[in-house]
Amino acid sequence: MNSKDIQSLVALACGAVLQGAAMALFLFPHNIASGGAAGIAILAELWFDIPHAVTIWGLNLSLLLVSLRWIGYKSSFKTIYTVTITSFTISLIQLFPISFAVPIYLSMVIGAGLFGFGIGVLFRNGASSGGLAIIAHIFYQVQGILPGKSLFVMNMFVFLIVSYFIDWRLFVFAVVTQWVATKVLNQVVIYPLTKNETKDTAVSA
């Protein structure tokens, strides 16, 4: 392992921590889903009292094991590495909860911004946040369905279920969160690359 690999792993860890902190501190307390996997985690906690981090890690591990043929070992390793750190960050924060007197709208914007920045760092280093984007990638490889289309449909379906069982406003919050996070993510990804960086990116939720 050379210095470039070590720098990449450190960057991935930082992005994963930001992603986990965004969810645990600003989004999950208000049941705002940052993506399909996060929405499933919210429902699992609501229905079965399963911690968010356990659902996110278990779901991603299962999907990655099934999708190795299409995703590849390198991207799969990086993704499960980041998902593990993200899940650990969520567990740690929820174990020692920090209370913020932040309105839900402001919490949504801050959480979405941090989430998008964290995923942007992952993208720049060849990983992703995993989630339902893994399924979207398989659909693209097998059926030729564009990832953005299938991912949009799956996320919207999960958002609708979450909002139906908890609060209809959460659908709007989830969509806005996705929009803000995507804008931030794009800015991080297109920020001028140094000569030592490449665009070796994987799919992301």
Described by the principal axes of the CA atoms, the overall outline is globular
Radius of gyration using CA atoms only: 16 Å
How many domains, in number, for the residues?
Answer: 1
Q: Unreliable runs, pLDDT <50, ≥5 residues? A: 197-204
- Mean pLDDT, all residues: 88
What structural category arises from helix and sheet content? mainly alpha
Number of strands: 0
Order of helices and strands: HHHHHHHHH
Helix content: over 70%
β-sheet strand percentage: under 5%
Main beta-sheet strand count, sense and barrel state: none
Distance between the termini: 28 Å
Per DSSP, the total helix count is 9
Protein name: YitT family protein
Main location: membrane
Subcellular location: Cell membrane
InterPro entries: UPF0750_membrane (IPR051461), YitT (IPR003740)
How would you describe the overall organization of this protein?
With 205 residues, this protein is mainly alpha-helical. The chain has one domain (3-190). It has helices at residues 3-27, 36-48, 52-66, 68-71, 73-95, 104-124, 133-143, 147-165, 169-190. It is a multi-pass membrane protein. The chain crosses the membrane at residues 53-72, 79-98, 104-123, 130-146, 152-176.
Write the layout of secondary structure elements.
Elements: H1 3-27, H2 36-48, H3 52-66, H4 68-71, H5 73-95, H6 104-124, H7 133-143, H8 147-165, H9 169-190
Helix pairs in contact: 1-5, 1-6, 2-3, 2-8, 3-5, 6-9, 7-8, 8-9
Summed up, what is this model?
This protein is mainly alpha-helical and about 200 residues long. The chain contains nine helices and no strands.
